[in-house]
Amino acid sequence: MGLGQFPFPPKWGACRGGGTVVPHATLCPQWPYCRKRCSYCNFNKYVVPTVDEAAVRACLVQEARTLLRLSQVQSVTSVFFGGGTPSLASPRTIAAVLEAVARAAYLPVGAEVTLEANPSSTSPARLAGFREAGINRLSIGVQSLDDAELRLLGREHTAAEARGAVEAARGLFPGRTSIDLLFGLPGQSQDAWARGLAAALRLCDDHISLYQLTLERGTALAAQVSNFARKGALSTHNLSYWRAEQYIGVGPGAHGRFVPRGEGGGSREARVQTLEPDAWMREVRSQGHGTRRRVVLSPLEQLEELLALGLRTDEGITHERWGHFSPQLSLQAVFGEPGEAQDLQQQGWLLLDGGGLRCSARGLALLDSLLPDLLCQLQRRWARQPPRVGELHRAAGPRGGARRGTGTVAGPREL
């Protein structure tokens, strides 16, 4: 099928079921295949001689439909194609997934739709095809603009190819191009890193994700991320994670957090899809999805996630967002009383005011050291309140109550 035959961009804007859309989530389709294994990456990825793209596409479409149907989600606020290397998929596959999402839920016109891409699979013609398929934001895995560093990382592109890919992307996606960089490489001096970062900012200053290289089991090298963006170029999708909003993971090894249809607002589940692509496809064909593990998160666990994620942003956690997760126990009631949070405020690491709870500029740099104290205060304060209706039966079982998707379970309540 040629590009001119695409039924896309999709006819976004039609709301499933009509009426006002309230329950919303982001969607994260995963393309698990790569051309080679990079020395730092421990993501769920597979290097295979050939890929049956039509089969993978059909399963991505089916699982997206199924999980949207089984959730309470009516509006998808952003879509992020990750991997693996999703730019190895054809524009036709991207278009098919977006069409399935647009038919199953409300996908607003102009919703952020991001594709992760490697410079080696981002020719101008291919990028134009992705844009025609519905992509409006590109995240490029540059990692370095130094050829020696790229060889160390096992990347298949050169610095010149990375520059060309970013320039082409900025022409097609102005103001909506992001690049990934790694720092802390073996033998990399602070001066070398400063020069590399300055060169990257000259190339693309819309949005940059910086990964500090760390050692991971199963890799030669690996990483952790911080995101930086110009005003107006923040990633809607990334912010949704930090705000602990619902997200639906589609594809091998994908993770998700959402409230199943038929459950109350507090019964959020953590889900993990089957890792291996062939096994995942068999499960999708047999039961409509490849959910391998699901865990019901307790209200306290949801607040712990919100605290750990929300404080990683400069806006922190607003009173409104906290109240969405904990209407009975306010942010002020938890962290406004004497305890660790007040001590951290007095030391200038933390702020609690009418805007909510957030770290100071100094506190953000030490957040991993502050979080254990804040989590302890939250847990102590939570233990002092009476249990809510419906929580007693959860407390009787093992923490999390994991279930495995064997294909024998059925119905919205089960899956």
Automatic annotation (TrEMBL):
Query: Which residue ranges are recorded for the region named Disordered?
Result: 389-415
**Ranges annotated as spanning the membrane:** none
The record's Gene Ontology biological-process terms are: porphyrin-containing compound biosynthetic process
Query: What cellular-component terms does GO give this entry?
Result: mitochondrion
Residues covered by the Radical SAM core domain:
19-244
**Extent of Low complexity compositional bias:** 405-415
GO terms of molecular function: 4 iron, 4 sulfur cluster binding; catalytic activity
Which PANTHER family is this protein grouped with?
Answer: COPROPORPHYRINIGEN III OXIDASE, RADICAL S-ADENOSYL METHIONINE DOMAIN-CONTAINING PROTEIN 1, MITOCHONDRIAL
Name this protein carries in UniProt: Radical S-adenosyl methionine domain-containing protein 1, mitochondrial
**What gene codes for this chain?**
RSAD1
